[in-house]
Amino acid sequence: MPKIRVLVVDDAVIVRSRVSKILSSDPQLEVVGVAANGRIALAKIPQVNPDVVILDVEMPEMNGLETLASLRQIYPHLPVIMFSTSTQDGASATLEALSLGASDYATKPSNLGSVEAANQHIREELIPKIKLFGQEIPVFSAALATNPIVVPISAKTPRVDVVAIGVSTGGPNALTTLLSALPADFPVPILIVQHMPPMFTQLLAERLSSKCQIPVAEAVPGVVLKPGQAWIAPGDFHLIVERDADAVRLAIHQAPPENSCRPSVDVLLRSVAQVYGAAAIAVILTGMGQDGLHGCQFIREAGGQVLAQDQASSVVWGMPGFVVNAGLANQIVPLEQMASVIMQRICFDKRSGL
Question: Which of the residues are catalytic?
């Protein structure tokens, strides 16, 4: 199998050197070039023909956003992974890059205590994503993708009191598409786990709220869930729901990661299944890995419903693919249709007088 060819673009010599050395130590990867800014990178792409570009956000002369915008005009399908700091400016620019067509992002190591810890962070953050985008993404089940199992809405469909969404790679754009299509009087609360570090989730919530008719905010412990409000799990915290005497409230905690994720979709869905039972819809959107798979099993066992994004509209058909392949999806839905399908399933009992 040929090696995956990588171009590293960063204005810092030490970053270019360290990243190149770490990536080159993997037998499946080959660093075919480095560039100190976007102008150099754009000139090098036709020379070195990379499979994946690692792109810094903050650079002189031509920054990452400007580079990405120019690159996408010439190379619309070349995978680009943003490599940014987790500062507020870095996170904001990264979210903008994702909206401009970046494939994914990885955060630069900071305050990890040692060089080896920083190196390990780069290995864990970058290498799996380079391999994911640099080679063909495996198809989980072509038969299921083209012939989805659909559980029809019927008089036995339970009422719905909450929607819980799990998403990772490709999530900011997917959430924008879905949430912006929901009406201001959306009849139930929405809970979201998006795999992102601290700072990113707060900025994502603010960005989504500015584009949607319903308010979107980072989850606040103790808040009572109300219709027409979306809450995003804070980075590095699991999000759960708890029922007290007269209400359902949000709670967060820092139990160990699950599926190498904190926040984890599985953690949220387990609590949703326990608190809401059959009155829950779980929605699994684009993302690498299988976080949410076991949580969807809890939702189905409790009598709830599961919707999975289809392969064609997913940036990565990992999380929804695992759910579909396990036979847990009531329906496989293109992203553009997800909002209307959710509304149909929520509103059926109200139309039927149930």
Answer: 168, 195, 291
For residue 127, the enclosing domain spans 4-134
Residue written as tokens 């499979």?
Answer: 51
Question: How many domains, the chain?
Answer: 2
Judge if 154 and 241 occupy the same domain: yes
Burial 123-138 (b: 16+ CB within 10 A, else e): eebbbebbebbbeeee
Please tell me whether residues 167 and 298 are part of one structural domain.
yes
What is the spatial distance between Cα 304 and Cα 235, in angstroms, rounded to a whole number?
27
| Inter-CA distances, 299 with 195, 219, 266, 267, 289, Å | 20, 21, 10, 12, 19
Provide the CATH number for the domain around residue 330: 3.40.50.180
The domain spanning residue 55 has which CATH number? Answer: 3.40.50.2300
| CA pair distance 338, 317, nearest whole angstrom | 15
How many Cβ atoms from other residues are within 10 Å of residue 140's Cβ? 17
Cβ(261)–Cβ(196) below 8 Å: no
**Phi and psi of 250, rounded to 5°?**
-80, 150
Measuring CA to CA, how many Å separate 108 from each of 10, 16, 56? 11, 12, 10
Q: Are 287 and 170 in contact (CB under 8 A)?
A: yes
354 residues of the chain, pLDDT tens digit each: 899 999 999 999 999 999 999 999 999 999 999 999 999 999 999 999 999 999 999 898 899 999 999 999 999 999 999 998 878 888 899 999 999 999 999 998 877 678 898 899 999 999 999 999 998 554 444 444 444 444 445 445 679 999 999 999 999 999 999 999 999 999 999 999 999 999 999 999 999 999 999 999 999 999 999 999 999 999 999 999 999 988 999 999 999 999 999 999 999 999 999 999 999 999 999 999 999 999 999 999 999 999 999 999 999 999 999 999 999 999 999 999 999 999 999 985 554 443
> What would the pLDDT profile of 129-154 be if each residue is shown by its tens digit?
999 999 855 444 444 444 444 444 54
Residue owning tokens 């690498």: 288
